[in-house]
Each structure stands twice: as structure tokens, then as C-alpha cells.
Amino acid sequence: MVHQEDPRVLRTRQLIREAFRNLLQTKGFDSMTIKDISQKATINRATFYAHYEDKYALLDEFTEQSFHQMIPEQVINAREFSDEICNQLILLTHQYIVDFYQKCRMDSKSIAKLVDEKVKNMLQQIIENIFLKGVNYDIADRQHIKIISAMTGSAIYGAAFSWLIEGEADQTDLLVDIVRPYVMSGLGLLIR
């Protein structure tokens, strides 16, 4: 077992993630092997396996870290789901999808499904955390918060993904103008 705070461990994990990012762009996930990642990171395969179970575990961590790095402090510290917070979540979700699909050669349906599910779950968790911290919400129980967060996250993710697929990637202000009123009016009906 590796000690996660050891500078050598952190440096090795960084090398592995950088190699993975580069290979995603140049080779694609399906064609990439552990041998490829290890060679690119200048480590041996045993070292890779000391840090990650397989390339799917690396993808999971890579997706999570990349998404979390994009979240502004204002969203992390939000105590209510306001129009501005909704705008920021729409924009960051859209940007993440654009980055991942265009820059990382998302040519595999299996990886796309994994990444999509991971991002939807992280978005749901962010929204759920905002509701749980909120003082202005009178929601009966945690299960309702989970359901409302899942619906809200799915609406934001679905719209941002569709926006990319439909070729509207440049007009993010229009995306926000369409999605925010829908999300906020839906929440207005559910949260009182």
C-alpha cells in the first residue's frame, strides 16, 4: 500500500495522470494499455498497479479531479441554489463536457457512458450539498433532497450535453437563458 501524502507518491500519481491525459488525446481510451501509460509516465507496470487497480480506476479519478478543479468557490460555499449558482453549474458542466468530448477523443461509447454517469453523480452531489447547507429550504427529509438534486443535475447535464451534440457549443449565454428558467421554476414548485 502506498502512503498517499508522500511527495514521491504524489509525483508518481501526477506523472501517471499526465501520461493518461496525453494518451486520451492521442490514442484514445480503448486503445490505451497499462503498458502505454507506464511507458509514457516512465514507470513500470507494477508501480502503476500500486497506485491504480486498472485504467478504469484511473479514468474515474481523472474525471473526478478534473471536474472538481472547475468548481468555483462560490458554488462550493453556496448556501442556496440561486440563479447565479445555477448559471455557474450550467456553464461549468457544459465546459467540462466540451473539454472531455473534444479534447480527449471520446470515441468509445463505454467510456462516454462511464464519464457521463460520473459527472452526473458529482453534479447531483454538489446540488445536494447546497440544499443540505441551505437555511431557506423546508424539505421534509434527505430522500427528497436526493431526488430533487438528481432531477436538477440531470436537467443541467442533459441540456449541456445536448447543446454540444447539436453543435451550439459557442452560444453558452443562450444555453443558460434556456436552462436556468426551466431548472429554477421546477425547483420553485418543489421547494417551499
UniProtKB/TrEMBL annotation:
Residues 33-52 bind DNA. Residues 10-70 form the HTH tetR-type domain. The keyword DNA-binding applies. Keywords: DNA-binding. It comes from the Bacteria. PANTHER family: ACREF/ENVCD OPERON REPRESSOR-RELATED, TETR-FAMILY TRANSCRIPTIONAL REGULATOR. This is TetR family transcriptional regulator.
